[in-house]
Amino acid sequence: MSATLPGPDGEPRCKWCLGVPEFLPYHDTEWGFPVKDDRRLFEKLCLEGFQSGLSWRTILAKRENFRAAFHGFDFDRIAAFTEVGIERLLQDKGIVRHRGKIAAVVNNARRARELVQAEGSLAAYVWRFEPDPATLPPPQTASTSAASIALSKDLKKRGWAFVGPTTVYAFMQAMGLINDHAEGCVTRAQVAKARQAFEPPR
């Protein structure tokens, strides 16, 4: 059975992106393209944590609200949040109002600051866990990997929360550490080209 379907332009794409309208632009312009911006990497780790137990459609629909609530995921600003700030966010109907997940973002912002001080940047740290493509399973057939397990374990050791191996694997798919677009998907070749030109931060 094919893992792709024709998109609106007739070109084949990953089946999952054709289920709802908002998935198509996300798939075509974001998912899988390599990222080295610390704020975007931190945002995605946070949003994947919020997605736990929910659908990505729910989170994507609220993404701009999350960005407003968390100051564009500026982890230096979030690190200064107090219990008062957490209580304020629990009243924000535009985001997922889950105390544990909100508190995890605040905690992870503080851990991100520590990590940047130790490693130079969040990007330099994360990209150290980029797996060898030859070791990866066929696209979209796994929910964890040796690399996502290793990154999850190291983040937890550093005190991060809501960063289990499945959450981290979804993060790696989205941020371009792996190209998990289906074989034959028109965007897979674009991502491959972007990854080839990408220089991971060191």
What does this structure look like?
The chain has one domain: Hypothetical protein, domain 2 (Endonuclease III, domain 1), CATH 1.10.340. It has helices spanning 23-29, 38-51, 56-61, 63-69, 75-78, 83-90, 99-119, 122-127, 146-157, 165-174, 186-197, and strands spanning 4-6, 12-14. The protein has a two-stranded antiparallel sheet. α2 packs across α10 (165-174). The longest helix has 21 residues, at 99-119. It has 202 residues and is an all-alpha fold. The model has no long low-confidence stretch (mean pLDDT 96). The N and C termini lie far apart (40 Å). It is globular, with a radius of gyration of 17 Å. β1 and β2 (12-14) form a beta hairpin. Pfam families: Adenine_glyco.
CATH superfamily: Hypothetical protein, domain 2
Number of helices: 11
Give the total of beta strands.
Answer: 2
What fraction of residues sit in β-strands? under 5%
Helix content: 40-55%
As for the CATH topology, it is Endonuclease III, domain 1
- Our Rg estimate from Cα atoms comes to 17 Å
Q: In terms of per-residue confidence, which ranges show pLDDT below 50 for 5 or more consecutive residues?
A: none
Q: Report the CATH C-level class.
A: Mainly Alpha
Pattern of helices and strands: EEHHHHHHHHHHH
Spatial shape: globular
Largest sheet: 2 strands, antiparallel
Query: What is the terminal separation in angstroms?
Result: 40 Å
Domain count? 1
> From the 3D coordinates, which CATH architecture would you assign?
Orthogonal Bundle
